[in-house]
Inverse folding.
C-alpha cells in the first residue's frame, strides 16, 4: 500500500487516541492493516510508558466503585504528574474502569491487577489501559493503591 488515506488515519485515531503522525506511521508500517497498526501503537505506548516510569507522580485521583446493590466496593488511587491531567475526562475514565476492575476481579496487589485481562476487552490487559493514558497525556501515570471490600469478607 503506497498511500494511507486520511479516512483510515481518522478511523484509527478515533479508536486509539494516538497522535496523527503516530497513527500514520503505524499504518504505513502495517501496510494499511488496522489491526496490525493498533498493535504497533500499543507497543509504542508501552515503550513510552517505560520511558516515563521514573518521573514523579505527585497528583492524581482517588476513585470508588460500588457494585451488587452496595455489597461490593473498591477504592483506588491513580497517580499522575500534574493536576491538569488528573482533571481530564480520560484520566477520570481510567480511574473508574480500574476501580470497576478491582471490584470485579479482586486482585491481591497492584502488580496482579496490571497483569489481569481487562474485563471489558479480554484481548487487553489493565496495564495497556494505563499505557494508553500515558501515551495520550505524555505523563507518567501509575496505579498506586487498591482496596476491595465485600460483605462476604
Amino acid at each position: 500500500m503506497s498511500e494511507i488515506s486520511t479516512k483510515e488515519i481518522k478511523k484509527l485515531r478515533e479508536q486509539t487516541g494516538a497522535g496523527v503522525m503516530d497513527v500514520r506511521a503505524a499504518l504505513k508500517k502495517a501496510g494499511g492493516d488496522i489491526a496490525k497498526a493498533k498493535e504497533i501503537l500499543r507497543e509504542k505506548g508501552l515503550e513510552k510508558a517505560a520511558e516515563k516510569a521514573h518521573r514523579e507522580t505527585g497528583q492524581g485521583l482517588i476513585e470508588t466503585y460500588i457494585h451488587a446493590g452496595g455489597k461490593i466496593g473498591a477504592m483506588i488511587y491513580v497517580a499522575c504528574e500534574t493536576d491538569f491531567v488528573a482533571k481530564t475526562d480520560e484520566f477520570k475514565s481510567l480511574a473508574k474502569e480500574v476501580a470497576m476492575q478491582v471490584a470485579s476481579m479482586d486482585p491481591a496487589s497492584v502488580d496482579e491487577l496490571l497483569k489481569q485481562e481487562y474485563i471489558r476487552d479480554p484481548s487487553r490487559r489493565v496495564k495497556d489501559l494505563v499505557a494508553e493514558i500515558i501515551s495520550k497525556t505524555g505523563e507518567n501515570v501509575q496505579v498506586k493503591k487498591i482496596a476491595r471490600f465485600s460483605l462476604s469478607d
About this structure: The chain has seven helices and five strands. The two ends are 57 Å apart (CA to CA). The chain has a mean pLDDT of 88. The CA atoms of residues 19 and 95 lie 22 Å apart.
